[in-house]
């Protein structure tokens, strides 16, 4: 994990994958514990609230190319890793994902271990892969496709 701070591009790619895949677009429903006044609107107690993570991860004012894969979203001009407040795949606030730290560690370790050992390609070339997700009840899942993993020497 110590190596992550020396690998800004890898870190940016991982963040961009999570942004683009938008895995839990509608988050988990919450509800108001009391009457709330928010930006001129009144949200009565017990109202079900669906905080759309999808809209934040595609917000045009936050992302240069919201609909396409672009690791530059997380890099500054010198190639250093750059945070973005709209990166919220784990949600925000008191009930945000408690597994965030573990998940981020696992994603980094698994992806870098695989890339160190294999070169990945696909039979029909990179453009044959459909990046649009398959929606299943509440999650955006990647579509199935064939991958060739060639051991690196
Ligand atoms: C890429 C991986 C993951 C993503 C994108 C993710 C995303 C989320 C999201 C969006 C929520 C809902 C937050 C909310 O209600 O506002 C959540 C909740 C939660 N996640 Fe994750 N999660 C991931 C991995 C994990 C892992 C590895 C664990 C456990 C080890 C975990 C445990 C939980 C728990 C316990 C909650 C409920 C928290 C609460 O209601 O207080 N998650 N997660």
Radius of gyration: 18 Å
Structural class: alpha+beta
CATH architecture assignment = Orthogonal Bundle
Count of discrete alpha- or pi-helical segments spanning 4 or more residues: 3
Tally of strands:
8
Distinct bound molecules: protoporphyrin IX containing FE
Strand percentage = 15-25%
**Which strand order does the major sheet show?**
1-4
- Write down the domain tally: 1
| Sequence stretches where pLDDT stays below 50 over 5 or more residues | none
Q: Provide the CATH superfamily.
A: Cytochrome P450
The outline comes out as: globular
- Share in helix: 10-25%
**Mean pLDDT figure:** 95
CATH topology-level fold name: Cytochrome p450
Q: What separation lies between the terminal Cα atoms?
A: 24 Å
Q: Would you spell out the secondary-structure blueprint of this structure?
A:
Blueprint: H1 8-21, E1 30-31, E2 36-38, E3 41-43, E4 48-49, H2 53-57, H3 100-117, E5 118-121, E6 134-136, E7 139-141, E8 148-151
Antiparallel strand pairs: 1-4, 2-3, 5-8, 6-7
Bound molecules: protoporphyrin IX containing FE.
The site of protoporphyrin IX containing FE has 14 residues, from helix 3.
Can you tag this structure with a few keywords?
single chain, 153 residues, alpha+beta, Cytochrome p450, two-stranded antiparallel sheet, 8 strands, globular, binds protoporphyrin IX containing FE
Summarize the structure.
With 153 residues, the protein is α+β, with helices and mostly antiparallel strands. The chain has helices at residues 8-21, 53-57, 100-117, and strands at 30-31, 36-38, 41-43, 48-49, 118-121, 134-136, 139-141, 148-151. The structure holds protoporphyrin IX containing FE.
């Amino acid at each position: 994990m110590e190596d992550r701070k020396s690998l800004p591009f890898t870190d940016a790619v991982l963040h961009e994958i999570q942004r683009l895949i938008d895995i839990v677009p509608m988050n988990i429903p919450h509800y108001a514990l009391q009457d709330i006044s928010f930006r001129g609107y009144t949200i009565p107690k017990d109202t079900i609230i669906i905080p759309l993570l999808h809209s934040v991860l595609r917000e045009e004012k936050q992302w240069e190319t919201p609909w396409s894969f672009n690791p530059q979203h997380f890099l500054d001009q010198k190639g250093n890793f750059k945070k973005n407040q709209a990166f919220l795949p784990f949600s925000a606030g008191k009930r945000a994902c408690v597994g965030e730290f573990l998940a981020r560690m696992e994603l980094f370790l698994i992806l870098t271990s695989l890339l160190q050992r294999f070169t990945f390609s696909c039979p029909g070339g990179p453009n044959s892969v459909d990046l649009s997700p398959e929606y299943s009840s509440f999650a955006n899942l990647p579509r199935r496709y064939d991958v060739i993993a060639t051991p690196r020497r």
